[in-house]
Amino acid sequence: MAIDKAPETTNWALTNLAFARLLDWLDPERERAGQAYERLRQKLRLFFEHRGCPFADDLADKTLDRVARKLATGTEVPPADSASYCYGVAHNILKEYWRNPARETLSLDSQPNNDNPATNATVPPLVESELQETEINLAHLDTCLQRLSPEDRKLILKYYQGDHRGRINNRHELAAELGLSPGSLRIRALRIREQLHDWMRRATSGGNIK
Questions:
Q1: Distances (CA, A) of 75 to 22, 50, 70, 79
Q2: Does the structure show a pLDDT above 80 at 122?
Q3: Short-list 109, 113, 110, CA closest to 66
Q4: Dihedral Cα 40, 163, 191, 208, nearest 10 deg
Q5: How far is the C-alpha of 210 from the C-alpha of 200, rounded, in Å?
Q6: Are 16 and 194 in contact (CB under 8 A)?
Q7: To the nearest 10°, the Cα dihedral for 28, 75, 88, 29?
Q8: What are the CB-based long-range contacts (under 8 Å, 24+) for 40-44?
Q9: Contact 159/171 with Cβ under 8 angstroms?
Q10: Percent of the chain clearing pLDDT 70 (strictly above)
Q11: How far apart are CA 191 and CA 2, in angstroms?
């Protein structure tokens, strides 16, 4: 069974469709698949934790995201080999992590935005049209956030709030507050994010999000 050893070179966000494909791969019955996902995520977290990685939760999620991407793009892996395949991907991600000189200061799901003039003085300011587009998108996002229930709005804002260790701590607090496991919290946040993305696509294309 071949494991793709090449690191990811493009930004890719886990979608509901890719996540559903991952769950189906783990088990065709959804409840058992969710339980298998939780167990696998916990084992991957311990894999990274025992190797001295401070961002073990992030690395476990990154491993499962990459596996989901491979499955979504057509990689064929027998379900019986799911654990060994995931560990193979985890080994590759561990190597990438130790090769990254910024590993102690960067959370894996919060990379710096080099296109943001507020955080990178060497980037020229956005032209006026780009600023206007950014303001419009922020307005659309605010409108879409207001459409969420208060509980979902609080969850999604806190889930992505903070940077590095603060974000990880926020997610642990959220999971404890809601009585959810970290994996279940991630699934719920993904569903909310996908709903926001759907509303944003319709809003920016002139569609009705009501």
A1: 12, 29, 5, 12
A2: no
A3: 109
A4: -160
A5: 12
A6: yes
A7: 0
A8: 40/64, 40/82, 40/83, 40/86, 41/182, 41/183, 42/183, 43/83, 44/86, 44/87, 44/90
A9: yes
A10: 73
A11: 31
DSSP 66-92: HHHHHHHTT----GGGHHHHHHHHHHH
Confidence (pLDDT) at 110: 42
Whole-model pTM: value is: 0.60
Map tokens 């339980």 to a residue. Answer: 35
User: What is residue 121's DSSP assignment?
Assistant: T
User: Which two three-digit tokens encode residue 56?
Assistant: 């073990």
Taking CA atoms, 178 is separated from 6, 32, 47, 154, 209, in Å, by 37, 22, 26, 12, 28
- The answer to whether residue 41 scores a pLDDT higher than 60 is yes
Cα angle value 194/198/204 (rounded, 5°): 135
Residue 160 identity:
Y
Contact 174, 158 (CB under 8 A): yes
Residue positions counted in the chain = 210
- Among the listed residues 99, 8, 86, the one whose alpha carbon sits nearest the alpha carbon of residue 47: 86
Q: Read off the tokens for 10.
A: 């493009």
